[in-house]
Design a protein that fits this description.
Oligomer: homodimer
Helix content of chain A: 10-25%
Largest interface: A-B, 56 and 57 residues
Number of helices of chain A: 15
Low-confidence stretches of chain A: none
Radius of gyration of chain A: 24 Å
Number of strands of chain A: 30
Structural class of chain A: alpha/beta
Largest sheet of chain A: 9 strands, mixed
Shape of chain A: globular
Distance between the termini of chain A: 73 Å
Strand content of chain A: 25-35%
Chain lengths: ~575, ~575
């Protein structure tokens, strides 16, 4: 088994593939070196002067280890895993630590198995974590529940990489038995536990870490970074579509930089296509003044070390031949991408096909809801003053503002005001639950809009100023098996299907992106303020772990009090 | 299971042990921080302000993670594992990566199992590698052979940590099937393979690394360090009794220092007692100008990372409570040592007992040789000119000098000259093999001296100017079950037993060291030049993997040609 590598390393036989005349990064010394990189099978066998059966001239390019995205939810791209790969592999990403939290909240383990199998056909290593928080809170109806017992069963599977971000940190810190069972199962299986602990510090952080959590991607300040690193966490610098903390790179020092990684967490197809993936994070970090070599090391060696992927993250003998040749380490334009020894992308274009997508029935047709009627959206409140949700443009933290409402015929009349009705329609188990509330300042007028992506349980979330349009929007979502919709009061309906779990489209990225842009534009044309991401800002209004006021299918939720609240003030 | 840690971390219950008022090293940021360190069971649960059932005031001290010796042969201390622990634990070492290469060459797997079991009673984590090169070469008779098949069987065992230093790099690079089988077995078992590759570079190094080897402790120059680090090796800075490369610390940079470790490799009881262990390496490195914090990180976090010991190497929640409080990070005098949460040493004194040593029969009485006669040491050569071995004082590389010899009665007469007879008497399998040669310039006169430690097969090695004394020396070694011996021509015999495999004494360190010093002094009194380590320099004259001329039981060996050679010139 080893002979073929040894013989090629010694140049007694030609390598399978040689990247000739490369300048390449030695991540261990932080030095750029010159030489050929010889590959046999999926492994690098040596650097020096080599001949290969296939040779690629890399003169003028800088070869880096393939990038590793340390934490990502593929579902947030709204694309299938195959198509997601077709966007990120040509950008130089060759491995991701993925958490299928969204699809598992809809489809249960079938969602997890779908991602595993769908990823197999593309040249991208998808290390799939088992989501730790399904559902995210006990206050909402999700499509599935993963108990401690389920976790014990599934975490042992070879194809499960680790335990996904443990967002329910209060449960761990509070010694909730179900939560501890999950952590204990991961520890017993020898698997990594990803963290998610915004602003958790001091003794609470100590307690959280005692549960074996090893990473965090939510750091917000130098003090938070300093404490979390000192306590042994690896920190992801995040470059998502709606959340970023690239500025955290400023806190890297010679002594601590090995503890930093890069992740995208949630990144939409449009951003992936237009700006890129980890390459874009590197480009921006360097532009902001970060050391380019240390930044690359974050996305390669450090990620490999954090996740115990000892076979990759460096250009050295015996490492996986996952390589990206960029024009330079300022612009990071990927010219050549090699995955496991095979040329898989050139000049930003994938050289692999993604047509025959794996689409099992159990991730399709996931919108289980009766036909909705206009009356379902009547908001019958008992006071002239009510709580309305507000959300800052570009943010996901919501506020609560007490507003005066116009009541009419047992309903609230919002037309012509700055208020909109907000509704979350349960869509997994036909419970009939509809949570209702008010949203202020979003800007939309003349109908309803909504989608089946709504964190984290992904029920139908709708807003509108017209009960009939809200019903029409929900019914269209049911018809198309989930997606995004705008129903005008005049009866016109625009929609874009997300057939996979109501979260992702099986279409190709280009076509999907165009239609996606069109429906988003339509929403803005109907008044959604440009500062919002028309649909995605809406999708976070149900995320009951982010302050302050949120709406779930069971009602209005005060996150600070971690309890339901009445709309009436 | 996790509750007790969480509750103590949150200060809802007292910790079991608290190191109060500590200044402690945060290895992740390279910063000294202040606070209490709280321990529950064997784990650190937090830093901050804590109360404990037991509290130790560490005001004025600096608390560091317990030191890890990245590569050591316990046998070289000449003490039992228990007694070895009693010397190094009070110095702050809490874990070692040990390679029982010496005892396995004598006793086979019984030697390995002995070290495993003997180590269990002491507060030191002994990660035991399976030796990869037993015997070291096919040109000598060892007590055991570990084949590829044996390696496949044993490497899987839970108590086997990895595959020991692969000294036979020519075999791997040369695609020797047995050697490859061993490496492949370790890879298949997911275990680390330690390296040993002096001056191996370029394409040969690439080939060696393709076999999964990950470390080296033999670097001799900046260029060698630079290349080996760039190719992904972890490098041990070595502080043994006869071999040192502490100067390699000068090549640490901000970018590469995470790839450096510290090891002692071979360190004798006398040095351990007098100067210390990893603490002494740190002391000297810092004295030579190395950054103290980076040096400590080499012996803690880096070693943990290299060997995938994710549970230790740092003072942080969820890490093993292996701690050493030193006076300062210049002198490194260990004042308090905590192993797995228990106080185990104070002011350099072990607080644990090592009396009831585990001494299985299969590591005792290992000198299997018939009664030797003076005639056995006749050196009947057919020329007046012969090859004599030379060895530089303080070194282990030998030279070959052609000398004139005085022949008399079918023997060589060395008395009164600068020559000595050298003999290696096979002692494992009663083969009757006696390799014979000449040694020039050692200085000994008036009898014979020898020992059962002779690398790597540990046959009896003897030198002398008197056949009768050589026979008497060998016979005494047989009587005492191995050890060190001096036989004067007047019939007086001095000896020190090494009952365990002929390599180690079961005695306590203090008594053993005193007697050891006495016999060494006796050797010098009989003429051995002070520049030599009287017995240990002799023990390396049979090491047929180190140039240039060596003597094994099967004859005189030319290491450069890797073949036997005639003594006659």
């Amino acid at each position: 088994m080893l002979e073929k590598y040894i013989l090629a390393a010694k140049r007694e036989t030609p390598a399978d593939l040689v990247l000739k005349n490369a300048t390449y990064l030695d991540v261990f010394s932080g030095k750029l070196r010159k030489g050929d990189i010889a590959v046999v099978g999926d492994k690098i066998v040596g650097t020096g002067e080599y001949s290969g059966v296939e040779e690629i001239d890399c003169a003028g390019l800088t070869v880096l280890p393939g990038f590793i995205d340390g934490h990502v939810h593929i579902e947030s791209s709204q694309l299938s895993p195959e198509e997601f790969a077709s966007l990120i592999v040509p950008r130089g990403t060759t491995a991701i630590i993925a958490d299928p939290h969204e699809i598992v909240n809809v489809c249960g383990m079938a969602g997890c198995d779908y991602i595993i199998k769908a990823s197999k056909s593309v040249p991208l290593d998808v290390m799939l974590n088992l989501p730790s928080c399904v559902p995210a809170t006990p206050f909402e109806t999700s499509g599935a529940t993963l108990t401690g017992k389920d976790t014990e069963k599934h975490i042992k599977r070879d194809e499960i990489f680790g335990l996904g971000e443990f967002m329910n940190y209060p449960a761990l810190i509070g010694c909730d038995r179900e939560a501890l069972t999950k952590a204990e199962a991961a520890i017993a299986a020898g698997k990594v536990i990803d963290g998610h602990a915004p602003s958790v510090s001091g003794y609470d952080l100590n307690a959280y870490l005692c549960c074996g959590v090893s990473t965090d991607h939510e750091c917000d300040s130098g003090a938070e970074i300093d404490e979390k690193i000192s306590k042994g966490m690896y920190l992801h610098i995040r470059h998502g579509s709606s959340t970023h903390n690239l500025g955290n790179a400023a806190f890297m020092t010679a002594e601590n930089f090995r503890r930093f990684l890069i992740c995208t967490d949630d990144r939409h197809a449009a951003d992936l296509k237009e700006y890129g993936h980890i390459d874009d994070a590197l480009r921006r970090m360097v532009k902001n003044g970060a050391d380019p070599i240390r930044s690359i090391i974050c996305a390669t060696l450090n990620a490999a070390e954090c996740y115990n992927l000892r076979d990759r993250g460096a250009i050295a003998p015996n490492r996986l031949a996952d390589l990206v040749a960029v024009d330079n380490i300022k612009d990071f334009n990927a010219k050549i991408v090699v995955k496991s020894g095979k040329l898989v992308a050139r000049d930003g274009q994938a050289l692999f096909d993604t047509p025959a997508r794996y689409l099992p029935a159990n991730v399709l047709n996931t919108v289980h809801v009766r036909t909705l009627r206009p009356d379902d959206f009547i908001l019958n409140i008992k006071s002239d003053r009510a709580k309305a949700m507000t959300v800052a443009e570009g943010g996901i933290v919501t506020g609560c503002e007490v507003v005066s409402v116009t009541r009419e015929g047992g309903d609230v009349y919002v037309k012509g005001s700055d208020l909109l009705k907000l509704a979350v329609v349960e869509r997994h188990k036909m419970t009939g639950n509809i949570g209702k509330g008010l949203l202020k300042g979003y800007g939309f007028k003349g109908g309803a809009m909504g989608l089946t992506v709504s964190h984290d349980s992904h029920n139908i979330i709708l807003l509108g100023d017209d009960n009939a349009a809200m019903a029409a929007a929900a019914n269209r979502l049911r018809e198309i098996g989930g997606g995004m919709v705008i129903a005008q009061s005049d009866g016109t309906i625009h929609s874009l299907a997300l057939e996979i779990a109501g979260l992702m489209s099986p279409r190709d990225a280009d076509g999907f992106r165009k239609d996606c842009r069109a429906i988003i534009e339509k929403a803005h044309a109907m008044g959604v303020k440009r500062g919002y991401s028309a649909f995605m800002s809406l999708a976070f209004l149900s995320l009951a772990v982010i302050p302050k006021l949120k709406l779930v299918d069971k009602g209005l939720f005060d996150v600070d009090k971690f309890a339901f609240t009445n709309i009436e003030e």
